[in-house]
Design a protein that fits this description.
Number of strands: 0
Oligomer: single chain
Number of domains: 1
CATH architecture: Orthogonal Bundle
CATH class: Mainly Alpha
CATH topology: 434 Repressor (Amino-terminal Domain)
Order of helices and strands: HHHHHHH
Length: about 110
């Protein structure tokens, strides 16, 4: 599924306005509108944007990535594989730091 469809459908299902999602996610209303219109579907969206969307929706980053079929759901190390392949991260330390940041966002949501 495209990120634009996910964001629009999830936002509408949660009865969030673009303004409210903008405030919760720290992403501009204009950016979110363009995102929903598909302006970024053919471009890479940063991990930072995904993290901000997860904060705005009160869900885990992994939930967004899983829904978009970005990473395989059955492998426990798939986030590491994804980070290495997508962002060309070689250092195990860097991957662990990023995983730690994502984990802290996920734990704060629970």
């Amino acid at each position: 599924m495209k990120l634009s469809l996910f964001v629009k459908n999830y936002r509408e299902n949660k009865s969030l306005t673009l303004d409210r999602l903008s405030k919760k996610s720290n992403l501009s209303k204009g950016f979110l509108s363009r995102l929903e219109q598909g302006d970024f579907d053919q471009k890479n969206i940063s991990l930072e944007t995904i993290i901000k969307l997860s904060a705005g929706f009160d869900i885990k980053v992994k939930d967004i990535l899983d829904f978009l079929n970005v990473i395989e759901q059955d492998k426990p190390s798939s986030l590491k594989v994804y980070l290495r392949e997508k962002y060309k991260i070689i250092s195990e330390v860097d991957v662990n730091v990023i995983e730690g940041v994502i984990k802290s966002f996920s734990e704060n949501k629970q």
